Amino acid sequence: xxxxxxxxxxxxxxxxxxxxxxxxxxxxxxxxxxxxxxxxxxxxxxxxxxxxxxxxxxxxxxxxxxxxxxxxxxxxxxxxxxxxxxxxxxxxxxxxxxxxxxxxxxxxxxxxxxxxxxxxxxxxxxxxxxxxxxxxxxxxxxxxxxxxxxxxxxxxxxxxxxxxxxxxxxxxxxxxxxxxxxxxxxxxxxxxxxxxxxxxxxxxxxxxxxxxxxxxxxxxxxxxxxxxxxxxxxxxxxxxxxxxxxxxxxxxxxxxxxxxxxxxxxxxxxxxxxxxxxxxxxxxxxxxxxxxxxxxxxxxxxxxxxxxxxxxxxxxxxxxxxxxxxxxxxxxxxxxxxxxxxxxxxxxxxxxxxxxxxxxxxxxxxxxxxxxxxxxxxxxxxxxxxxxxxxxxxxxxxxxxxxxxxxxxxxxxxxxxxxxxxxxxxxxxxxxxxxxxxxxxxxxxxxxxxxxxxxxxxxxxxxxxxxxx
Length: 469
Known about the structure:
The protein is 12% helix and 46% strand. By secondary structure, it is mainly β. The strands form seven sheets. A seven-stranded mixed β-sheet has the order 21-20-22-28-27-24-25, with no helix packed on it. Strands 2, 4, 5, 7, 8 and 9 form a six-stranded mixed β-sheet that branches. Strands 11, 13, 14, 16, 17 and 18 form a six-stranded mixed β-sheet that branches. A hairpin with a 6-residue loop joins strand 4 (82-89) and strand 5 (96-101). It is rod-shaped and about 195 Å long.
């Protein structure tokens, strides 16, 4: 029995010792396993990422949109997360444009037309292992044709007035693609002008024959060599009118005495005594270049500054003795187009209150029968006029005084004579060294008055001998 008990105690001690040893080994194994050599099962080594493949756009493809997106296939054989570096550019060693991107696509932005682009992808896993993809390339699409520029900047400006007849139509054109451009020109007097020229390459058009003061419409249609077109808007302009000119002085049927107006538009004719400032009003939408004044076809003055005025004062008796004159005024615009106007005037040069005119106004009845007047005929010296009288030296003169119930005739030799207002008609020929000797006739109001000679007869005879007819 004692032996049996000892066996049992030994067996228990062995069991307790075994459990203790196993526990110690388990603890040691748990804490020392990472540092000990792996002699059993262990994790596989890391593999680099998959090589980038299946590029989009495909390698060496053409006609690619300038708004394309780059994409590819990637991943990792170990299932590790992968980042991508993207190299992109127009050289065969493109620069890096983005790093550590996790997406399998990249938007490069708007590209250039007809350009070859190069790109490459390098993949990286989280163990810093990488795989470099091949170099790919593609060519973008050609630039689509754009229509020509819309014609603009018209000359003459749209709505312009007073356009020279010698003007040209001009405009701006061109093409955004640099393609050659031709132009169709539409021109006319309606708001839908007809085509007058096709396929011209210049940016101007000669108007040709156009008329004064007319509104014209025009437009330009541009065409490029791809048959694309751009029509400009309808433009318009109005050509200039001819210049206008009027004579504002003297007026028709008006009496002028020493440049003063009387009986405006009420006198029987346009009558002028003494100097007068012939005045013209001229205008043009493009400006007046000059105004010319003519009397009886002879140019007497050119004026280029408004107001346009010409002083006319032909008082010297040795000049043309006719009473009626034609005044003509011609105005020129800055394109040398002209307009003219005329007026007939009676210019009295011998007395400021010409009774002759009144006689004309009443048919000559008053001058010939109701008032005393004297007509003298013969050889005169130094005929003079003042405000109300006429004076002369009668070398040998026949006179006739007529009035109501009166008719006197006579001859005067070598006398100084006076009379009233000159009323005409006057018919005289001037001669002598100073043109102060005259032969002819004239009429004045009232009687003739004369006194004894106040001029040496010897001197007068010498003048007559030396006179040149």
